[in-house]
Amino acid sequence: MSSADDNRSDDSQGGNQVRTAAVIIYATFALLIATIPQSLTNWLRDMDEDPLQQAVLVAADAVQSMSQRAGLDVAYRRARAQFKALTGKEDD
What we know:
Blueprint: H1 3-35, H2 37-46, H3 51-70, H4 74-87
Helix pairs in contact: 1-2, 2-3
């Protein structure tokens, strides 16, 4: 095998590693948005209003509603209730 072949092999492996890392990161984001959907809507509400933010907020509200109806956020809601009970914290 020539050194050019080695370089091409290294480049393709590096590309695969970057692709794999990107898939893992975006899958993690999707999982977090599905299981803790209010985090995205709260973050968007804290941003300065603009047309893009408003459009994404509508989509985030829809995701939050679907997630809650499907029960995907049950673990988060239970953990949050336990945290509030232990610390005596109240919602703002």
